Amino acid sequence: MKILVPVKRVIDYNVKPRVKADGTGVDLANVKMSMNPFDEIAVEEAIRLKEKGIATEIVVASIGPAKAQETLRTALAMGADRAILVATDDAVEPLAVAKILKAIAEEEQPALVILGKQAIDDDSNQTGQMLAALLGRPQGTFANAVTVEGDKVIVAREIDGGLETVQLALPAIITTDLRLNQPRYASLPNIMKAKSKPLATKAPADYGVDTAPRLRTVTVAEPPMRQAGIKVADIDDLVGKLKELGVA
Amino acid sequence: MQIYTAPLRDMRFVLNELHTDDGFGDIPALADFTPDLTEAVLTEAAKLCQDVLLPLNRSGDEEGCTLENGVVRTPKGFIEAYKAFTEGGWNALVLPPEWGGQGAPEAVGKLVEEMICATNVSFSLYPGLTNGAIAALTVYANDTLKQEYLPKMVSGEWSGTMCLTEPHCGTDLGLLRTRAEPDGEGGYKLSGAKIFISAGEHDLTSNIVHLVLARLPDAPKGVKGISLFLVPKYLPDAEGNPSVRNGAKCTAIEHKMGLKASATCQMLFEDAKGWLVGEPHRGLEAMFTMMNAERVGVGIQGLGIGEAAYQSAVWYAKDRLQGRSLSGAKHPDKPADPIIVHPDVRRMLLTMRAWNEGCRGVSAWVARALDAEKHGAEPEQRQRAADFVALMTPVVKAMFTDLGLESASLAVQCYGGHGFIRESGVEQYMRDARIAMLYEGTNGIQALDLVGRKMPAEMGRYLRSFFHPVSDFIEANLEDPAIGKMVAGLKRAFEALQGATAIIAERGMKDPEEGGAAATDYLRLMGLVAMAYCFAKASKIASRALMSGSGEAGFYKAKIDTARFFYEKLLPQSASLYLAIKAGKGSVMDFAEEAF
């Protein structure tokens, strides 16, 4: 079976983001970029399914700037087989990404699409769900454990109260949560091999999708500085303060 | 606190921007290693070093290695780290593809080595010694030995050692006593004691391959009677798997000042089965193949520790609030200013930074030459590269390790009293850095190698491989509006170096003690000029990048500012070194021995 894993190039999770002086967005000039950590978990899960002999081919796809090639190469170095770059300089939104992924899925016919539950740059948490709806396929989001059994996949999902187990008929959509696995380090021989693995470059128009943003960013600002706390004398004082603030 | 993020931007700079016109040309054999591939390699190596090796640095130092019933245990986590390291293929980065290596350029390999040494220099010894042994076996071993041992050593399944030193014989290998008798089966029986054997015994690999210097029964006295033998811990069976335990045992592990997670062993060979590597009585030559490659590697240890010390000190200097800036409070909202506001703290931080960037520039140049020596297309190109490597090896080894210790000491100084406390992490850098000035030939021996062997070699041909590019650069750039002032400084330092060379050549011819008395100063002077050259070139590239509106203004501006600090505050040492050399041996040798 084939697995499709979409990956996004985002600001590195170690970097402290800074807002552009004019408030139009986050400053990405010369900032370290890497693969969205949730997508790394998705790639790792696909590779583990391949190592178990369940998956036969892993296709990774990215929709974004030409530089997203590096992110795809990272996925190839981890162990994916081939890559598709849908190159666009637009700031793509979840719906446009989901539409492009739908077209890729129709072309590639993967039994599983494994996505990160959200990207750490905009934290949308929408693409996987939208893709499932557009394709009319079952979805197992926030996966904590994934087991493929015949033509079904069992997904333990992280929910507020603990874990919920769902069984989905393949083909299906999965989005990964943080505790699904620990992504591997790419080995040196695989980094070298990744260079010669196939990487196809496409444009959104090839899939008939218009990526023009539907949302307008009004302004982007740093979160307000955290205020210092105050010491309270006793419980009554605490309750009084909470009432004052209107939270109790 | 031990802080380290691989300086990937500067590494890319020295790899792809700084030495493009070094005269060693494009090396077709290495064309596969494009910038985007090396970028992926460096990024992943940095991840492994930062996430796996760095967390084991302090715990490994606290725990150390233990010996019980002849079995050495490495500190907690080392087995897993070694597994991750070798499974990732990192030990084989620059090793030959015919034996399973990745064949990457030394220019990339040395940068990865720097990261490994910065994050865990003790760990670096285990794969490091193996690579040295592989280098000697690749050149001198016969095909049977190669087939039997190289694939498993290249994969990291087995490790290697080099056994030279004996209790009574360190620098002077002519005194060596370990004996090898033919066993009548084409092999030899080795008997003798060795000390200071890094990775002589440990629990990371299923077999350990010792390369041992010993004397055959008919051996002439002195260094011309030493042969090299391969002695495995376990003799391989017919399938090549470790089977019978050989008579090579660890009798003790040394109690050391630093480098505690590296098992430094006393080894006893008792009728240990071994095989001759190379020709009888020619062992020293084979060992020096290994030794020369190792010396550049030891220099990189100094650089790695210097960088880790710098980053740890910067973190502290920004974090530690104490007193106020001399020119008035810089952070009135806080109870005190961070100590980075103080000129003397900044002097220390910039000194470390300049040493690190300077050394990285020089080592990238030498690494380019190592690649050109091996893979250069033209014989003339290979020769020039070999000359340059031979000349610079003692400089890299001695100067980098001296400066590594200096940086570690400055980091302790930045921490104040806390630097002296183990938990601060920086005192470990000082203890770990100290050994690099001693092993693989003390820094004094490196200076003698430079002055006694390398300087006069081939009527000064080695020297010309360095002097010519520097004088060409000075001539071409004295009038450059951006760096002309810097180049004038380079010119003065270079003239001091030329002057010192002439003095030593003239006096040393009549009296070798004159060369000996000047050697250490001369080595540093040459190293300073090499760094000055790299900084001037870097500033030229950086100012061009800034003029063309580079998006990386921060990086390039800092490059120029670091160069300026180097030129104004550190390079002036070249003038005093020249004067000390010029003063000659008198004050050193006239002093009465009984007055000491």
From TrEMBL, chain A:
Signal peptide: none
Domain of life: Bacteria
InterPro entries recorded: ET-Flavoprotein_bsu_CS, ETF_a/b_N, ETF_b, ETF_beta_N, Rossmann-like_a/b/a_fold, Sigma_54_int
Keyword Iron belongs to the record: no
Domain annotation Sigma-54 factor interaction: ranges: 58-239
SMART domains xref list: ETF
Record key words, sorted: Electron transport, Transport
Entry-linked Pfam families: ETF (PF01012)
Family: Belongs to the ETF beta-subunit/FixA family.
Protein name: Electron transfer flavoprotein subunit beta
From TrEMBL, chain B:
All copies of domain Acyl-CoA dehydrogenase/oxidase C-terminal, residue ranges: 282-449
Keywords, sorted A to Z: FAD, Flavoprotein, Oxidoreductase
Acyl-CoA oxidase/dehydrogenase middle domain residues: 162-271
Cofactor(s) essential for the protein: FAD
Start and end residues of each Acyl-CoA dehydrogenase/oxidase N-terminal domain: 40-157
The Acetyl-CoA dehydrogenase-like C-terminal domain, residue ranges: 466-591
Pfam families hit by this protein: Acyl-CoA_dh_1 (PF00441), Acyl-CoA_dh_C (PF12806), Acyl-CoA_dh_M (PF02770), Acyl-CoA_dh_N (PF02771)
Family the entry assigns: Belongs to the acyl-CoA dehydrogenase family.
Name of the protein in question: Acyl-CoA dehydrogenase C-terminal domain-containing protein
